[in-house]
Amino acid sequence: METIWSQTKQLLEKTLSPGLFNLWIKPLAARARDGALELVAPNAFVAAWVRERLSDSIAEAAAVVMGARPQVFVVEATQAAAPVAASAAQTPAAPGRPRRQPGQRLAGPRPVAAPLTLPVAPSAPPALVDRFRFSYDEFVVGPSNEMAYAASKGICDMSLSAEQLFISSAPGLGKTHLIQAMGRRILGGEPRRQPRVAYLSAEEFANRLVMAIKTKQVEQFKAAFRENVDVLLLEDVHFFRDKPRIQDELLNTLKALNARGCRLVFTSSFLPKELSGLDSQLLSRINSGFLAVIDKPDLDMRRRILARKAAVHQVLLPEEVSTLLADKLPSDVRQLESCLQNLVLKAKLLNCRISVDLAWDVLRHYDVAQAPVSMDDIVSYVCDVYRLSPDQLKSKSRKRQYVLARNTAFLLARQHTDLSLADIGVQFNRRHSTVVKGITALERHLSLKTPLGRELERTIEQMRG
């Protein structure tokens, strides 16, 4: 059982975001029961969160290891009746276990659970060095990202005039790579001068705050972030939209960090001016430093990215194949790298050389560049998928199917057209804040790989099919 859960966790670590994995999967322990997978959470809150949002992802990963999709049960530690295979060092179960009175013995073996990492103890910043997978050595610099690259290194070396940096780009263009490279570089300095770095996503910050409130450890949460952090690296700040309670805490945290002269770095898929739904004071503080925008890479830069990755894979990439991939996948570096990785793997499995024909065979699974997609194309496609008329799509109806269809159209328009958020909103008689909210909601499902997220992936992939 220990091997099954260990292998399942390895798969989950590759498919989930680092924040989700470290926050919700690591604290779990596991045991077998009648062919099912029983997970033990430190407390009821973690059990409910995992049960509602991650059970499908866990079942799919476990199916790869076990050969069949198991039923997944999630219980809190106080409900467990026997020892389990812990995912980390064994510690006493979560608060709420009956205390043993003098002379009294509790019946049955004491359940054991993995330690809960939330909220973070005040003595340690909420970041792990091994979360920084990317480095500057792997980052390919070109006209589209050279400003963000220089500014990020300036923050690391404290040579930039500002102590804050906001990095904005469409998904898949290198925001996460840069911010992780920053964390790695800062932590790789002289040990005596090494600052305390906190790296997490906006959603993880929110989840930690909620957990602190539920466990009545808000003061420890505040101390961990306000007093024991020198560098805050915060991803996807657009997640804070329309969350006033969490925005208040973040604002106070940033004020405390600014007062101490700490370095702050934020990333978002949107420009600061597009972040409606944020408190004006919070938006002003987030936007008070240096703004760096990463644009789509040009053809030459995409070729250099492929050459760098081919060297990492230790393969010879013919020039005609490099040109083909760079030409057909122009807008998303992540997809470009994924395509190359699959091409290399297929060549190894077939024991053959990388060729144009083999590249075309792999490319058919990707959203390759074709004729430009117009807004009319998007409206027609979305109406066909969701069985709506254009008038229904643009109507004021709040029916779930209509809202989902509109949000899908917003996301596709963002990906396939050069229209601004405001212009996209005009097409559907909506404000740009509604467009941001809709895109953010779908991006969350896509990143969490929820059932809706997987359905959306298929819908997006078939757009050009």
From TrEMBL:
<dbReference type="InterPro" id="IPR018312">
    <property type="entry name" value="Chromosome_initiator_DnaA_CS"/>
</dbReference>
<comment type="function">
    <text>Plays an essential role in the initiation and regulation of chromosomal replication. ATP-DnaA binds to the origin of replication (oriC) to initiate formation of the DNA replication initiation complex once per cell cycle. Binds the DnaA box (a 9 base pair repeat at the origin) and separates the double-stranded (ds)DNA. Forms a right-handed helical filament on oriC DNA; dsDNA binds to the exterior of the filament while single-stranded (ss)DNA is stabiized in the filament's interior.</text>
</comment>
<dbReference type="GO" id="GO:0005886">
    <property type="term" value="C:plasma membrane"/>
</dbReference>
<dbReference type="InterPro" id="IPR003593">
    <property type="entry name" value="AAA+_ATPase"/>
</dbReference>
<dbReference type="InterPro" id="IPR013317">
    <property type="entry name" value="DnaA_dom"/>
</dbReference>
<dbReference type="InterPro" id="IPR013159">
    <property type="entry name" value="DnaA_C"/>
</dbReference>
<keyword id="KW-0446">Lipid-binding</keyword>
<dbReference type="GO" id="GO:0006270">
    <property type="term" value="P:DNA replication initiation"/>
</dbReference>
<dbReference type="InterPro" id="IPR024633">
    <property type="entry name" value="DnaA_N_dom"/>
</dbReference>
<dbReference type="InterPro" id="IPR020591">
    <property type="entry name" value="Chromosome_initiator_DnaA-like"/>
</dbReference>
<dbReference type="GO" id="GO:0003688">
    <property type="term" value="F:DNA replication origin binding"/>
</dbReference>
<keyword id="KW-0238">DNA-binding</keyword>
<keyword id="KW-0067">ATP-binding</keyword>
<dbReference type="GO" id="GO:0008289">
    <property type="term" value="F:lipid binding"/>
</dbReference>
<feature type="compositionally biased region" description="Low complexity">
    <location>
        <begin position="86"/>
        <end position="96"/>
    </location>
</feature>
<feature type="region of interest" description="Disordered">
    <location>
        <begin position="86"/>
        <end position="109"/>
    </location>
</feature>
<keyword id="KW-0547">Nucleotide-binding</keyword>
<keyword id="KW-0235">DNA replication</keyword>
<dbReference type="Pfam" id="PF00308">
    <property type="entry name" value="Bac_DnaA"/>
</dbReference>
<dbReference type="Pfam" id="PF11638">
    <property type="entry name" value="DnaA_N"/>
</dbReference>
<dbReference type="InterPro" id="IPR027417">
    <property type="entry name" value="P-loop_NTPase"/>
</dbReference>
<protein>
    <recommendedName>
        <fullName>Chromosomal replication initiator protein DnaA</fullName>
    </recommendedName>
</protein>
<dbReference type="GO" id="GO:0006275">
    <property type="term" value="P:regulation of DNA replication"/>
</dbReference>
<keyword id="KW-0963">Cytoplasm</keyword>
<dbReference type="Pfam" id="PF08299">
    <property type="entry name" value="Bac_DnaA_C"/>
</dbReference>
<comment type="similarity">
    <text>Belongs to the DnaA family.</text>
</comment>
<feature type="domain" description="AAA+ ATPase">
    <location>
        <begin position="161"/>
        <end position="298"/>
    </location>
</feature>
<dbReference type="GO" id="GO:0005524">
    <property type="term" value="F:ATP binding"/>
</dbReference>
<dbReference type="InterPro" id="IPR038454">
    <property type="entry name" value="DnaA_N_sf"/>
</dbReference>
<dbReference type="InterPro" id="IPR010921">
    <property type="entry name" value="Trp_repressor/repl_initiator"/>
</dbReference>
<feature type="domain" description="Chromosomal replication initiator DnaA C-terminal">
    <location>
        <begin position="374"/>
        <end position="442"/>
    </location>
</feature>
